[in-house]
Design a protein that fits this description.
Layout: H1 2-67, H2 75-86, E1 92-103, E2 106-118, H3 120-131, E3 136-146, E4 154-165
Antiparallel strand pairs: 1-2, 2-4, 3-4
Helix pairs in contact: 2-3
């Protein structure tokens, strides 16, 4: 009788230990599932950041490629090349250099430019050429006004900058 009681007691203790191990294992399994869910969320965020980083890297390489394409003497020559390529040099009223500013590893030259009697299509072409120029040209501010003589054309005043690596 005592032997039967000990067997039952060992069976009960063994079953209890198995139940405790099952509960611990289930808790551990649920914890790992939560961690996996968090890691998958982080992975998707990292993929999005990777795409953004590659996009920024491509833009930086494009700008750095522009830096070494052509050698220009200054802002006046750089803007003159933009207008000459469009055949609009005769519409240029003035290019007034505003000064040069030193930056870390580069030099920035600013100028104020006024172009008269330009159609809307020519304006778009000028802006496109500035954006895609072989040098780093930046428009700081721009003013577009209709002409008094002919309301169909514009007078453009822009503050532009040329960034040259040193």
């Amino acid at each position: 009788m005592r032997l039967k009681l000990e067997k039952k007691w060992f069976a009960a203790v063994g079953a209890g230990i198995c139940i405790v191990f099952c509960i611990v294992f289930l808790n551990f399994s649920l914890s790992l599932k939560g961690d996996l869910r968090n890691l998958k969320a982080q992975q998707s965020e990292l993929y999005a950041l990777k795409e953004e980083c590659l996009s920024v890297k491509g833009r930086i390489e494009a700008v750095e490629g522009k830096r070494s394409l052509t050698k220009v003497e200054g802002i006046v020559q750089a803007f003159d090349e933009v207008l000459r390529s469009l055949g609009l040099r005769q519409k240029l009223k003035y290019v007034k250099p505003l000064g040069t500013r030193k930056m870390e590893g580069a030099r920035e030259e600013e100028a104020e430019v006024e172009i008269e009697n330009v159609s809307m299509n020519e304006t778009i072409n000028i802006l496109y050429k500035i954006e895609n120029a072989p040098t780093i040209l930046s428009i700081r501010k721009a003013s577009f006004r209709t002409s008094f003589e002919n309301p169909g054309v514009l007078n453009i005043t822009m503050s532009i900058a040329l960034i040259v690596a040193e």
